[in-house]
Amino acid sequence: MIRVVVCDAGPLIHLDELGALDLLGDFQTVLVPDAVWTEVEAHRPCLFDRMAGAFIRVGPRHPPSASLVALARLMPLHVGETQALQIAEEHGADLLLTDDMAARLVAKQIGLPVHGTLGILLRAVRRQQRDPRTVADLLRTIPSRSTLHIRPGLLNEIIAEVESIAG
Amino acid sequence: MTTSVQVDIPDQLVQQAAILVRDGWATDLDEILTDALRRYLISHSAELNEAFIREDVDWGLRGQG
């Protein structure tokens, strides 16, 4: 069971762009690191006001571990991504949500379960938060409504898979 | 074969790179920039991006939690 989720800026911004931020309400606790909070406010100024109480803003408790510092330097990680990884480690998070590839690579390296916006959208079908047709329609709007980039052929493939569930 | 490019880089980064060159960790700024670009391209490759998306699809539709 997924209890504690740490969220990077990408999924918050992309889910908000798609009007699907409520999907994160399926998790018991969603932690948003300080640096991520600031970044999201710059892109989506009203997001946290609209979703008051849905997210918990947290700062790091300790300096990052030596391995995380080394990996963050090795990979091109921004401050928000580094802090998200650090807080996920500190809180023993069940899941880190990020759409940044370098952050995903580092998360895997340090043993953190990690997924992105697309995973949350598709999980909505499995968790019956949305019916498959609604999710397929949502996926179709990704190129026009969001800043999430997915190769069109791959997106069509995923939409077809979701539609096959709808029957 | 190489291509010359002109880029604007923050002074602080150039100074840090110059220290690496001075201390012998890199031959010159060109080598550092080429290595930085190579690392970026590896960590942001299309194949990797697609692999992560397919992981999301699998987890989202058939995973647990």
Which descriptors apply to this entry?
heterodimer, A: 167 residues, alpha/beta, Rossmann fold, 2 domains, five-stranded parallel β-sheet, B: 65 residues, mainly alpha, 3 helices, 68% helix
Protein model, in words:
The complex is a heterodimer of chains A (167) and B (65). Chain A has 167 residues and is α/β, with parallel strands linked by helices. Chain A has helices spanning 9-17, 34-43, 47-50, 66-74, 79-90, 101-109, 117-126, 132-140, 142-145, 152-166; strands at residues 4-7, 29-33, 56-58, 95-97, 114-115. Chain A has two domains: 4-117, 5'-nuclease (Rossmann fold, 3-Layer(aba) Sandwich); 127-166, no CATH class. Chain A contains ten helices and five strands. Chain A starts with a strand and ends with a helix. In chain A, 44% of the residues are buried. The model of chain A has no long low-confidence stretch (mean pLDDT 94). With 65 residues, chain B is mainly α. Chain B has one domain (11-62). Chain B is elongated and about 55 Å long. The A-B interface holds A 1-2, 74-76, 94-95, 101-102, 104-105, 115-126, 150-151, 154, 158, 161-162, 165 and B 39-40, 43-46, 48-50, 52-53, 55-57, 59-63, 65.
* Class by SSE composition of chain B: mainly alpha
Domain tally of chain A: 2
Distance between the termini of chain B: 50 Å
Number of strands of chain A: 5
CATH level 4 superfamily of the largest domain in chain A: 5'-nuclease
Strand content of chain B: under 5%
Q: Outline the low-pLDDT stretches of chain B.
A: none
Q: Order of strands in the sheet with the most strands of chain A?
A: 3-2-1-4-5
Q: What is the molecular shape of chain A?
A: globular
Strand portion of chain A: 5-15%
**What is the N-to-C succession of helices and strands of chain A?**
EHEHHEHHEHEHHHH
Which two chains have the most extensive interface, and how many residues on each?
Answer: A-B, 30 and 20 residues
Intertermini distance of chain A: 28 Å
Q: Give the C-alpha Rg of chain A.
A: 16 Å
Uncertain stretches of 5 or more adjacent residues of chain A: none
Average residue-wise pLDDT of chain A:
94
Choose one word for the global shape of chain B.
elongated
Q: What value does the average pLDDT of chain B take?
A: 90
- For the record, the CATH class of the largest domain in chain A is Alpha Beta
- Our count of helices of chain B gives 3
* Helix content estimate of chain B: 55-70%
